[in-house]
């Protein structure tokens, strides 16, 4: 897969794409990340990419022409069609389902805004989708783009040493992930649950499923409300809820 990113900070994008799982995916030829700087396509000695907004107000707005020229260069670099995604706090909230859709595409072009924003005429003419990574505002779209690069890169086939890691992640089946433990078995902070040490793989699978259901119920009930549960899932969740409520009662001060 190829990701083209329009950004005023190409060094940041390239550095973040060289790390960890994403860096390994790039080294293996599974992912290509290319940064394009609008300043390289701006006119004048100062290579200006922004101007004051019409109507007054604070901040600066990114100009249309440098962005359009940069987008044209990105498109010309590879003949395959590519949706254009703008990282914006006004966009659709990013989900794992959307990440999987992106990861299945051969190409994607990401646009990182800066300053007060981008001239709306460019957005209306050139952008296919706006994506937000959360209900907060950053200085620009680069961190959001880095999030997308990482989320997409790790889903490329062969990027993870164990493909099952992605299947077990939070949100993959609509639920949060279960808790995980490693050595030592006994520690001042507590013990590893006995079921994980017993070697009964069916019991371990049931425990992990129950913990996943329970965690989602406690932390993200909105996700649970959108998930179709089987009869066995409902039974596991009800048992978790009974145990959790009993623990709450015993820990309640008199």
From TrEMBL:
<comment type="function">
    <text>Specifically methylates guanosine-37 in various tRNAs.</text>
</comment>
<protein>
    <recommendedName>
        <fullName>tRNA (guanine-N(1)-)-methyltransferase</fullName>
        <ecNumber>2.1.1.228</ecNumber>
    </recommendedName>
</protein>
<dbReference type="InterPro" id="IPR002649">
    <property type="entry name" value="tRNA_m1G_MeTrfase_TrmD"/>
</dbReference>
<dbReference type="Pfam" id="PF01746">
    <property type="entry name" value="tRNA_m1G_MT"/>
</dbReference>
<dbReference type="InterPro" id="IPR016009">
    <property type="entry name" value="tRNA_MeTrfase_TRMD/TRM10"/>
</dbReference>
<feature type="binding site">
    <location>
        <position position="113"/>
    </location>
    <ligand>
        <name>S-adenosyl-L-methionine</name>
    </ligand>
</feature>
<keyword id="KW-0819">tRNA processing</keyword>
<dbReference type="InterPro" id="IPR029028">
    <property type="entry name" value="Alpha/beta_knot_MTases"/>
</dbReference>
<dbReference type="GO" id="GO:0052906">
    <property type="term" value="F:tRNA (guanine(37)-N1)-methyltransferase activity"/>
</dbReference>
<comment type="subunit">
    <text>Homodimer.</text>
</comment>
<keyword id="KW-0808">Transferase</keyword>
<dbReference type="InterPro" id="IPR029026">
    <property type="entry name" value="tRNA_m1G_MTases_N"/>
</dbReference>
<dbReference type="GO" id="GO:0032259">
    <property type="term" value="P:methylation"/>
</dbReference>
<feature type="binding site">
    <location>
        <begin position="133"/>
        <end position="138"/>
    </location>
    <ligand>
        <name>S-adenosyl-L-methionine</name>
    </ligand>
</feature>
<feature type="domain" description="tRNA methyltransferase TRMD/TRM10-type">
    <location>
        <begin position="1"/>
        <end position="225"/>
    </location>
</feature>
<comment type="similarity">
    <text>Belongs to the RNA methyltransferase TrmD family.</text>
</comment>
<keyword id="KW-0963">Cytoplasm</keyword>
<keyword id="KW-0489">Methyltransferase</keyword>
<dbReference type="InterPro" id="IPR023148">
    <property type="entry name" value="tRNA_m1G_MeTrfase_C_sf"/>
</dbReference>
<keyword id="KW-0949">S-adenosyl-L-methionine</keyword>
């Amino acid at each position: 897969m190829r990701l083209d990113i329009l950004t005023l900070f190409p060094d940041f994008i390239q550095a973040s794409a060289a790390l960890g799982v994403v860096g390994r995916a790039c080294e293996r030829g599974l992912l290509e990340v290319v940064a394009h700087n609008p300043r390289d396509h701006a006119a004048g000695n100062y290579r200006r990419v922004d101007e004051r907004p019409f109507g007054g107000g604070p901040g600066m707005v990114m100009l249309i022409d440098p962005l359009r020229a940069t987008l044209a260069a990105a498109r010309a670099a590879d003949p395959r069609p590519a949706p254009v995604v703008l990282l914006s706090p006004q966009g659709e909230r990013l989900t794992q389902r959307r990440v999987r859709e992106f990861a299945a595409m051969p190409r994607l072009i990401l646009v990182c805004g800066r300053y007060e924003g981008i001239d709306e005429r460019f957005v209306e003419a050139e952008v296919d989708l706006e994506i937000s990574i959360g209900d907060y505002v950053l200085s620009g779209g680069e961190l959001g783009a880095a999030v997308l690069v990482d989320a997409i890169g790790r889903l490329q086939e062969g990027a993870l040493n164990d493909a099952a890691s992605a299947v077990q992640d939070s949100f993959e089946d609509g639920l949060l992930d279960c808790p995980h433990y490693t050595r030592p078995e006994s520690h001042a902070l507590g013990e590893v649950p006995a079921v994980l040490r017993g070697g009964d793989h069916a019991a371990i699978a049931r425990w992990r499923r129950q913990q996943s259901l329970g965690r989602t119920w406690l932390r993200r009930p909105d996700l649970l409300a959108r998930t179709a549960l089987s009869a066995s899932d409902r039974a596991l969740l009800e048992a978790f809820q009974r145990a959790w409520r009993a623990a709450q009662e015993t820990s309640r001060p008199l």
